[in-house]
Amino acid sequence: MIKRITAGLLAGTLVLALAACTATVPISPTDSSGLGSETIHVGIAYDSAGRGDLSFNDAAGAGLDRAKKELLVQATEATTEAENDQARAETLRGLAQGGSNPVIAVGFLYATAVGTVGKEFPDTLFAIIDDDSVSADNVVSLLFSEEQGSYLVGVAAARATRTNRVGFVGGVDVALIHKFEAGYTAGVRSVNPGITVDVRYLSKPPDFSGFGAPDKGTAAARQLISNGADVIYAAAGGSGSGVFEAVAAAPAKVWAIGVDSDQYASAPEAVKPHILTSMLKRVDNGVFQEIQAFAKGDREGGSKRYDLKVDGVGYATSNTALNRYKDDMEKARYRILSGAVKVPSK
């Protein structure tokens, strides 16, 4: 079944990719899902990179896909192309007007829009990923401890480097990405304080293009490689593919570290051998669990934290080359979980 929102509702500012599964079937009282006979229709608003970024948005989409399969929810997906608060508000407003509840906003750039549209639809639950600035009874923040996962891949980078110089490419110079940088740097220096961490950001606010500009990622990675970096961690959304291309084309062996999703699994065959690991930010778990909680009757605002303790962050093990460093990474994980290590977020 296909459901469409009229262009008039969205003021021509968004592109909708609508996906609806079969209607929810009644659940017996003994079923543990808590869905009952209620039909849940989820709305999800991706940031401008949309589905197909092989990173942040795809992770959110994977959580939605799991909910459609396991919880039998219906869904409407939307991507806002215009980079402004008005366009984002129209995206959320269109989803809410179309009957979606809950409505999930993928990324901190939706904060102002969530604050505005949340007041207009007090009976709709809005969930926003990576932002806790909106305080309302119908707004829930889904937050992640990115610095913890970044610390672990920093340990791997420190063990893998031969030049004692590693790189970091951040998509946009904002507080959220600083968490990735801070954790990565701390992990590297926990192994060897003498390793240099060379940092590049692709754009600064109000320019948020750094999350979707592979050419900028390629240029930054080439600079890092020319400066001697032989391991590069890319926390840059869709721009990470450009980093991977530069790493794969390097004249000497250089490792790339991906982010959010297992980017080894989705990389072209020629690039896979160059991706050592990825810092997993389990946005898929966050999205799925929030939809599941809603289905079970949790309709309250507030915030939920996804860290190492709840498998909210971690690292990918698809490339067997990582095996030689896993013991050190697991030791670091246990030190964080025990409280012996407090990972900085700034």
TrEMBL record:
- Look up the signal peptide feature and give its range: 1-19
Q: Which domain of life is it from?
A: Bacteria
| Every ABC transporter substrate-binding protein PnrA-like domain range | 46-345
- Pfam families, per database record: Bmp
Q: Where in the cell is it found?
A: Cell membrane
Check the record and name the PROSITE patterns matching this protein. PROKAR_LIPOPROTEIN
Q: Which SUPFAM superfamilies match?
A: Periplasmic binding protein-like I
Its topology with respect to the membrane?
Answer: Lipid-anchor
Q: What are the annotated GO cellular component locations?
A: plasma membrane
What UniProt keywords apply to this chain's record, in alphabetical order? Answer: Cell membrane, Lipoprotein, Membrane, Signal
Q: What family does this belong to?
A: Belongs to the BMP lipoprotein family.
Write down what this protein is called: BMP family ABC transporter substrate-binding protein
Which taxonomic lineage is given here? Bacteria, Bacillati, Actinomycetota, Actinomycetes, Micromonosporales
